[in-house]
Amino acid sequence: MSGSFPLLALTGGSGFVGRAFAPMARRAGWRIRHLGRRPPPDADPADEWAFLDLSAVEDVDLSGCAALVHLAAHIPAHHGDPAEAERCWRINALGTLKLVDAAIRTGVRRIMQVSSANAYAPTPESPDEHAPLFPGSRGYYLGSKVCQEIYAADRCRGEHVLLQTLRLASVYGPGQQSGALAVMAQAAASGGPIRVHGSGGFGADLVHVDDVARAMLLLLGSENAGAFNVGSGVRTTIAELATLLAEQTGAPVVHDDGVGKEDWGFPALNIDRLRALGCQPTRLADGLKL
User: Fold this and answer.
1) Can you give the residue ranges of the NAD-dependent epimerase/dehydratase domain (predicted)?
2) Catalytic-labelled residue, pool 120, 140, 141, 172
3) How big is the CA angle at 8 (ends 221 and 129), to the nearest 5 degrees?
4) Residue 79: other Cβ atoms inside 10 A
5) 15 with 158, same domain?
6) What is the C-alpha to C-alpha distance for residues 81 and 30, in angstroms, rounded to an integer?
7) CA nearest neighbour of 118 among 244, 206, 243, 48
8) In a domain, 276, yes or no
9) Backbone angles phi, psi at 240, to 5 degrees
10) Helix (H, G, I), strand (E, B), or coil: what is residue 139?
């Protein structure tokens, strides 16, 4: 009976976005084959698993798969470490190329990959999908994601493969273990204080993880190819986030003295292309309550 449902190959199923996406995909009628060095610890018993090491892609079992969803990536612990440049390129760029090549040779005709909207060239304007990609910071990681996009698109060209690239804003939500928002939310939940570095002027487009998973499912059911910005369309600063968390929990906000010039961060995304398909992002005030 299960064979009547389409099979989806998924990398990064144990990651933050993957853990939100997989249950939604199952409910939508997809079967899942996880690709990774080991099965996700919380995978559904009905899920399949096949070995994949993105740092050294060799044989990967994509037989019978109608789609490949590629979420896995190497994100450096220290973005300023030059030693990370080679590892980011080998896993994120070259590993993706080899995986996409294997999918095409196996007959997979639908590929979805995740990139980062923080790779757009610095601008105070809201970039759409045609804006130039040239990261102004975190270049070893974000540069490898730009390279990933180029490699995947070039390999798919002329192959009658539907390639969708999701450029994600800063993702938040239940179960998040790292990042400024997670640290601040944990502090607020425990009564505070919520600490803000300097004026808290660093900002980003914050998108709920469930919105990302819903956008992925929507696009899997469409024939729209190319790049898609996935965000809220709203820029939120650290100071604004701290105020919102304080209003919801009553925890105090403490501003630490800033040292040096503060990073402005990233703009809100233009998400008109995704909105046109029916996506409506969750308001940050509501998303923080989930």
Assistant:
1) 10-231
2) 141
3) 50
4) 14
5) yes
6) 40
7) 206
8) no
9) -65, -40
10) helix
Looking at the structure of the chain, the number of domains it has is: 2
Q: What is the pTM of this model?
A: 0.95
Catalytic, 151? Answer no
For every one of its 290 residues, what pLDDT tens digit does the chain have, with 9 covering 90 and above? Answer: 355 799 999 999 999 999 999 999 999 999 999 999 999 999 999 999 999 999 999 999 999 999 999 999 999 999 999 999 999 999 999 999 999 999 999 999 999 999 999 999 999 999 999 999 999 999 999 999 999 999 999 999 999 999 999 999 999 999 898 888 999 999 999 998 999 988 999 999 999 999 999 999 999 999 999 999 999 999 999 999 999 999 999 999 999 886 667 889 999 999 999 999 999 999 999 999 85
193: preceding bond cis by omega (within 30 degrees): yes
**CB under 8 Å to 278, separation ≥6 — which residues?**
218
Decide if 275 is inside a domain. Answer: no
| Structural domain boundaries enclosing 225 | 2-169+207-230
Asked if residue 224 and residue 248 are part of one domain, the reply reads no
